Amino acid sequence: MKVYAFVGPSGTGKSYRAQLVASENNIHYIIDDGLLIDENEVLAGTSAKKAPTKIETIRHALFVEPKEQEEMKKALKKYKPDSLLILGTSDKMIEKIRESLDLPELTKTIYINDVATEEEMEKARNIRVTQGKHVIPVPTFEIKKDFSGYILDPLQIFRSRSANGGPYISEKSIIRPTFSYLGNFTISDSVFRQIAERVAKKEEGIYSVSRIRVENYGEGISIYMEAVINYGDNIINILNDFKNKLKKEIEKQTAMNVLKVDLVAKGIHMEEK
Fold first, then answer.
1. CB 247 within 8 Å of CB 258
2. In this structure, how many other beta carbons lie within 10 angstroms of the beta carbon of residue 261?
3. Span 2-16, pLDDT tens digits
4. Which of its termini does the chain have fewer beta carbons within 10 Å around, N or C?
5. Which three-class secondary structure state does DSSP give residue 223?
6. Would you say residue 247 lies in a domain?
């Protein structure tokens, strides 16, 4: 296995450029913040960005815990990558990861200033400090359940040609991790009720919604809701259509991962005429 390192200070855009650097060096596998990634798929590990504190984040990224070490070693043995790119904030951090996972000596080290200008790095640092946003180099659907309730936006990068001559398309996710200095946030059930009422107003088949109950399971939420249906339409079609639209709107407005929506028709509304 050829092992490559991609080194740069925290917040300078390493994760943002990881796939491009890998593509230009014909590398398919990446280790970034505790995750083993194969192009657009997470193969093993838990993102260090889920850790509750900065110290725990570093421990996860370095694979300090024996359990995390063994899980990653098994994954590397299973997938047998011929080349691997490790992301780190310093040469020392790369060396610690390499030692923790019993990886071969480095073939090459690439530094962030080799692939990004000072202006680009400063812009990335500013976004990290002022907005608390981090990039994970995988599509949003890959990590959605792990980051339910945190700012989670898809980001797609397209370049007409890459280093090997073909088109380059990269999908990433922007998150605000647990340890962000901006603090944690909670969403009350009344917010979900208001979103549901707003969606219901746009649905001709729904007269009103009531009794909303929300349960949070960590990787996402489950919603129970009762509705009154307008007379004259197909109830099953109305409920299914409303559930799909509600799920989409809640995920868009709150960044919560909606695992399930149970919607019960509790009444029929008929116009007086």
1. yes
2. 18
3. 999 999 988 888 877
4. C
5. strand
6. yes
- pLDDT tens-place string over residues 48-68: 666 667 778 788 889 989 999
Residue 170 shares a structural domain with residue 261: no
**Same domain (yes/no): 64, 153:** yes
Tell me if 249 is assigned to some domain: yes
Q: How many domains does the structure of the chain reveal? A: 2
In angstroms, the CA 190 to CA 135 distance is 31
Last residue of a domain, one of 115, 146, 175: 175
| 52-61 CB burial, b ≥16 within 10 A, e <16 | eeeeebbbbb
Domain that holds residue 244: 189-269
Please choose, from the candidates 172, 139, 124, the residue with its C-alpha nearest in 3D space to the C-alpha of residue 20.
172
Check if the beta carbon of residue 201 is closer than 8 Å to that of residue 240.
no
**Per the structure block, which two tokens stand in for 12?**
């300078």
Nearest alpha carbon to residue 71 among 106, 105, 40, 31: 31
pLDDT in tens, 225-271: 899 999 988 899 999 999 999 988 887 777 677 888 999 999 999 98
- The per-residue pLDDT for 82 is 93
Give the number of residues written for the chain: 273
> Could you give the CA distance from residue 260 to residue 248 in angstroms, rounded to a whole number?
12
Mean of the per-residue pLDDT values of the chain: 78
